TrEMBL record:
UniProt EC number: 1.8.4.12
Keyword annotations of the record: Metal-binding, Oxidoreductase, Zinc
Gene Ontology terms describing biological process: protein repair; response to oxidative stress
Lineage, top ranks: Bacteria, Bacillati, Actinomycetota, Actinomycetes, Micrococcales
A GO cellular component entry from the record: cytoplasm
Originating species: Metallococcus carri
Catalysed transformations (reactions): L-methionyl-[protein] + [thioredoxin]-disulfide + H2O = L-methionyl-(R)-S-oxide-[protein] + [thioredoxin]-dithiol
Required cofactor names: Zn(2+)
Pfam families assigned: SelR (PF01641)
Coiled coil: none
Gene name for this UniProt entry: msrB
Domain MsrB: 5-129
SUPFAM superfamilies (alphabetical): Mss4-like
Protein name per UniProt: peptide-methionine (R)-S-oxide reductase
Amino acid sequence: MTKTDEQWREELSPQEYAVLRESATERPFTGEYTDTETEGVYSCRACGAELFRSTTKFHSHCGWPSFYAPSKDDNVELIEDRSSGMVRTEVRCASCGSHLGHVFEGEGFDTPTDQRYCINSVSLKLQPTQ
């Protein structure tokens, strides 16, 4: 999916645009999905592509929604991120290229993958299970 910056600005709020298109980060503990336990599917707020399921969401107490795996590996794109003076792995929507957050490994969480997909709430839209 390709859109111009002008098209994205028309469709997204200023905060959504800053995070999804400019790789900003929302402040910790402020996002609407940080602590939610609603069952359903989390999709990309920009394009609607499925990204995560509530069955892989867990409480990491980091200030952002955390998942231990995407719903399918090819739903997200992982990119080396050397910004902010560190090396991290950025997570992007594979469908539209929007910034979602970062993934971290080896932090000792009791999850099947020992990964923490730390995702901005503003990057997501929850579709509750009926």
